[in-house]
């Protein structure tokens, strides 16, 4: 019998981003005492003494993660920092430092890089963090940004993804879906512009959505707020890939299920209007649209009184046993299995 | 009078890599008490308690930093880690963790990424470091690797670039130039292969050079060795861009000059042979060729007796007053100003 000698080739898209990471990192075991938490959360946790260091990193590629047609470089620089700080916030840590590496093709003049760094500098100022290093090099195509963020926290303050317990409340900060609809508005304007470059867009009805897309903020305020309220979440994650995807991360790592209530999901009125204009189901977007950079966390039921009056927090569901799995409870009171349809960079 | 409204466009190559970094980072001031040392050395130094954390990051781009035509993915993964660990060694710190972000275009199957991660995993094992996080995404073109390395050290152990003093000895580990000549051999073989793909290269005469290029090692042993010898360098850097470039970094930051002796520069016999074969001046390559990942450091003259018998170290020169500037003293005893002709990613 003849052997098939064709080397096996597996398409990356078959695995998906999370599957790929799991697959490639399964051989990494922890060897150093200073590594308290390795791969598998929003950030790693390192022990160098009294305070713990929290480390997270992100790679942003032009044409995959951003489109310079409608993303001004200054905003891009700001957002690239915010995205990483958000991961540090998701550990209930305080962001303190970042490294920034940038690769650009020859088509970028210095002035373009200056704009990018203006945005990075502004974010460093606003969030009181230090840019401690990086690398600048050339790329064969487009702009590539790699940022690593470092934060600090006392060991007992750090919140992981794996601590949610049956009966805990599921809470989200701010509102959801607006960043995704902001992107839809910008994509539409780009197409209009390509047809008629003289067309002056009137974006007044979309300012909030566009700002959520182009200039998101990291919820560094939540750590302080929770401390004041004397609440420590049992688990936490940031909403970068979409609410359903993030809920499922918490449930998987905490070995629990959850009920998410459609009617509770916080959205902005402008978001609802634009969903109607685009004829898109707003709940689908609020659940699956990414890039909001809000925080999703669980708290013990006993802590409900401490947070219930606070406008920053919305209770959107509760944790159930693992066997009960994770569901969306619709306004019509039907129970739909929750699926991760979050943004997947490898499906592009 | 008419104003020139053309926006100013400055070519990045006008500034060079170091000029660009200086220019873009001049606005970054340090705000956090935990930032002991920010931009400007091989790595940043952070204070989270008893031990200090040392952080360095690198971005590697296909077609700029490596060529997959002769760089096997396994070796690339290994080298990408080593390059970063070398920066940590250059701070006299112990590498402990890395984050790894990878972006790939669709042409890469999973098996290719597995090979890359095999090399990363091997390096993590050899150097006893933890891979604590990262990011996997798609690129528009080619393979992009971003690695951040973290190390630890007691504050009094850390060696910066700025401590060299007049009269100090300039010392280099291992030998220099071989990695660069290994690259020349591989480039030549690639061209031969393109003309005649059936040609089987005989690379026996070049094994050391090729290994220096494809599988460099980080000098994690030097920290221990210096500790045993009870020598603390006054300044240190790793030789990634070429000896002359690194010497000038130390001199600039230490506000000193130096005399480098041509006859003292350590090179391998294979390197000399291949320079003759290629009809290239070996000193030019030993001084300007990059990617050796050896360590360059200065010690007080009083410490000379402690290191003089050690085969790992070669005294190549000494530090002089800043006004005397930096020179190469040739075998013919002529004094030539030392210039940084190191590898510049932005000139490609």
UniProtKB/TrEMBL annotation, chains A, B:
Query: What reaction gets catalysed by this protein?
Result: thiamine phosphate + ATP = thiamine diphosphate + ADP
- Please give the Pfam families that the UniProt record associates with this protein: AIRS, AIRS_C
Gene encoding the protein: thiL
Q: Does the keyword Nucleotide-binding apply?
A: yes
Q: Which pathway does it operate in?
A: Cofactor biosynthesis; thiamine diphosphate biosynthesis; thiamine diphosphate from thiamine phosphate: step 1/1
Taxonomic lineage of this organism? Bacteria, Pseudomonadati, Bacteroidota, Flavobacteriia, Flavobacteriales
What else does the entry mention about this protein? Reaction mechanism of ThiL seems to utilize a direct, inline transfer of the gamma-phosphate of ATP to TMP rather than a phosphorylated enzyme intermediate.
Please give the name of this protein. Answer: Thiamine-monophosphate kinase
Q: Which CDD domains match?
A: ThiL (cd02194)
Q: What does this protein do?
A: Catalyzes the ATP-dependent phosphorylation of thiamine-monophosphate (TMP) to form thiamine-pyrophosphate (TPP), the active form of vitamin B1.
Q: Which residues bind Mg(2+) 3?
A: 42, 87, 238
Annotated ranges, domain PurM-like N-terminal: 40-152
What does the entry list as the binding residues for ATP? Answer: 134-135, 161, 240
Residues at which Mg(2+) 1 binds? 57-58, 135
Q: Name one GO molecular function term.
A: thiamine-phosphate kinase activity
Q: Which InterPro entries match?
A: PurM-like_C_dom, PurM-like_C_sf, PurM-like_N, PurM-like_N_sf, ThiL-like
Residue positions annotated to bind Mg(2+) 4 are 42, 56, 87
- The residues the record assigns to binding Mg(2+) 2 are 58, 87
